[in-house]
Specification:
The chain is α/β, with parallel strands linked by helices. The chain has helices spanning 6-16, 28-41, 59-72, 87-96, 110-126, 155-165, 189-195, 213-221, 231-246, 253-275; strands at 20-24, 45-50, 77-84, 100-103, 130-135, 169-172, 203-205, 224-229. The protein starts with 5 loop residues before the first helix and ends in an 8-residue tail after the last helix. The protein binds 1,3-dihydroxyacetonephosphate. 1,3-dihydroxyacetonephosphate binds next to strand 3, strand 8 and helix 9.
Length: 283
């Protein structure tokens, strides 16, 4: 059960009240670490890369690697293009074989966001791929280059947006932000409570790094079924490499590589446990 679309993974998560981790990856070591955790825990998963990260990890190189890794995995894994900004890159991801794409029009006026997202949804459908949209605006930015303010989702706008676009998953803003929080955020659970019954598809929580385990669980109980984790992976890889150097465990390049894989693995293991998706990859 290798490469899959994200919609069946999220539909099962919605029925059984858990969330699927959507882990950002930047290189082969991170892909290997995440999928090691997935195999070990028998979880479904999504691996993703955001458009702003392509400066460091070109799509034509990392994309085929992600797709091949998902195909090799014994658990169901979707390959997702995160925070797509341009139609060209979204199209390229679909051509490479990504099974879902996000268009992030959260900075656009409502009607424009809905119109462009709807067009991307149609393009994705031609590839039998899924489409995620965003309504409201998650704070921060995916690569830390901008400090975008949170603009919390209006449940009524979420409903209208979903009806106009027919997206397969909808990212909401409830006080969450990308990157490390200065302090744990106070999430607006009331927004989730009102939005989930109005929108017929799974909701997505971005900015997963630094959200407290109990807050994750509460979000899941209120309709979040996909949780994006990026910074925590990068931090865990760095921390594990630093620790291994300090302990004298790195003697040559391949020890360094193993420490990177291990860092991504440890972070994925931690989140899989909190999200309640261990064992859910078995068909
Ligand atoms: P973090 O970097 O805060 O984990 O956010 C990840 C994310 O939402 C990617 O879309």
């Amino acid at each position: 059960m290798p490469l899959t679309k994200m919609s069946p993974l999220l539909a099962k998560a919605r029925n059984e009240k858990y969330a699927v981790g959507s882990f950002s990856v930047a290189n082969m070591e991170m892909v290997l670490g995440v999928l090691k955790a997935v195999e070990e825990t028998k979880s479904p998963a999504i691996i993703q890369i955001a458009e702003v990260r392509l400066k460091q990890s070109p799509l034509e190189l990392i994309g085929p690697l992600m797709v091949a890794a998902a195909k090799n995995c014994s658990m169901p894994v979707a390959v997702h293009f995160d925070h797509g900004k341009t139609k060209e890159k979204i199209q390229q991801a679909l051509d490479i074989g990504f099974t879902s794409v996000m268009f992030d029009g959260s900075h656009l006026p409502f009607e424009e966001n809905a119109a462009v997202t709807s067009g991307i949804k149609k393009t994705a459908s031609l590839y039998n791929a899924d489409c995620e949209g965003e309504i409201g605006c998650v704070g921060g930015s995916e690569d830390g280059s901008e400090d975008i303010a949170v603009n919390c989702t209006s449940p009524e706008q979420a409903k209208e947006f979903y009806e106009k676009t027919c997206v397969d998953a909808l990212a909401v803003a409830i006080g969450n932000a990308h990157g490390n929080y200065k302090q744990a955020p106070k999430l607006r659970f009331d927004i989730l409570e009102k939005t989930a019954p109005l929108v017929k598809v799974p909701l997505v929580l971005h900015g997963g790094t630094g959200i407290l385990p109990d807050d994750f669980r509460k979000c899941i109980s209120l309709g979040i079924n996909k949780i994006n984790i990026a910074t925590a992976t990068f931090d865990s890889v760095q921390a594990n490499v630093r620790k291994c150097y300090t302990e004298g465990a790195i003697n040559g390049y391949y020890d360094l590589q193993a420490a990177e894989v291990e860092g991504a693995y440890l972070n994925a293991m931690k989140h899989i446990e909190i999200f309640g998706c261990a064992g859910k990859g078995i068909q």
